[in-house]
């Protein structure tokens, strides 16, 4: 086991369940182009959660553009059923490439703006559930005297809104506003390394999606994923993360034991 100097955590799917909010963000955005009814007919809350767990659709611009084009082609229901297949990302990408209609620059900009407005609104807090085990898991890691950080593609406004009670436990927080390139780039993790003085080779990043694994590898960190978030197990294991845990509780228990063994 490597020396661990810092544990960095993702937010969505690790510390909070934002599946209802993600669904609402997409529904409201697609309503602007008259596709909300088709979206709601084909996608459920967990469907969009796992759809965004795939690398190509993790970014809001990409997820909205993909849903728009496939809905216009009349194949959205077909895509929804594909999400749970091991090769879902490549199959959905093939359908997307065959679509002839794309959102205009103005349509996409309008949808993205509505998505951001909905996600960062004060009332959106009611659609987010912080995992009940989050505080306990953080304390387990913290008790081992290791530094902790948040590295997320989310806006700092939503992190502070939903995780206010947990923020004092973290030494550093890196949000979408702090980097020029979002995950799967490892820029955020490298920034934490610089801020903390801990080399990336002595860091573990705990996420729940394919882009989290890729970000950790890009930064030179150990990659750990939890299966309780956005990413489906078959999709995550295809990326060969260093560690796979049922949830953050199991990850924290393993880290607590490993960290204490190296004190």
Description:
- By secondary structure, the chain is α/β, with parallel strands linked by helices.
- The chain has 2 domains: 6-18 and 128-261, Rossmann fold, CATH 3.40.50; 19-126, no CATH class.
- Helices cover 49% and strands 11% of the residues.
- The chain contains 13 helices and 8 strands.
- The chain has helices spanning 19-31, 36-42, 45-51, 60-73, 76-82, 88-98, 105-120, 134-142, 156-162, 187-196, 210-219, 233-237, 248-261; strands spanning 6-9, 16-17, 129-130, 147-151, 172-174, 203-207, 222-226, 243-245.
- A 6-stranded parallel beta sheet has the order 5-4-1-6-7-8.
- Helix 1 (19-31) packs antiparallel against helix 2 (36-42).
- The longest helix is centred in the middle third of the chain and has 16 residues, at 105-120.
- The two termini are 13 Å apart.
How is the CATH topology of the largest domain named? Rossmann fold
Number of helices: 13
Overall structural domain count:
2
Classify the beta-strand content into a percent band.
5-15%
Using the alpha-carbon principal axes, give the shape: globular
Rg from alpha-carbon coordinates: 18 Å
The CATH class designation of the largest domain is Alpha Beta
